[in-house]
Amino acid sequence: MIFTRSILNEVLFLENSGEELCRILNNIGLEVESFKRVSAPSKVVVGKILECQKHPDATKLNICQVAISTNGDDYEIRQIVCGAKNAREGIYVAVALEGAVLPSITIKKAKLRGVDSCGMLCSTSELGFPGLYDGIVELDSSIGELVIGKELSEYPIFCDEVYEISITPNRGDCMNLLGIARDLSAAFGVEMKKIQKINIPDSSPGIGRVLQVVSDEKIDSSVLYRAFEAELRPTNLKNSLFLAYNESLCSNYLKNALNFTTLYSGVIMNAYPQKFCHLGDVNQEKITLHVKKDEKGFDSVYFNDLKLSTIGVNNYISCNNDSLGNEFIIVEASYIPPYIVASNVCDNKPKDLDAHIFQRTSRGSNPNLLLGLDILCDMIICDCSDQNCVIYKDTQEIITYTENESIAIDINLVGKIIGKEVEKTEIINILKALEFEVEISSDDTFLLVKAPLFRHDINNLADISEEIIRFIGIDNVISKPCLIVQNNQSTDWSHIYKFRRNLAKAAIYSGFNETIHFVFFNKEKLESYGFETLKEELDLTNPITNDLNTLRSTLLCGLLDSVLLNKNNGFTGISLFELGSAYTKDREEKILLSFVQSGFVNKEHFPITKGYKGDFFTFANRISNVIGEFELVECSSSISLFHPGQCAKVIQDGKEVGVISTLHPKVANALGLDTTYLCEIEISKLESKIPSVKNYSKFQKTTRDLSVVISKEVPYFKIRDSIVSLNIQEILKFYPLDVYNDEKLGENNSLTIRFELQSMDKTLEDKDIVSITDRILESLKNTFNIELR
Question: Which of 84, 131, 178, 679 has the lowest tally of Cβ within 10 angstroms?
Answer without folding.
Answer: 131
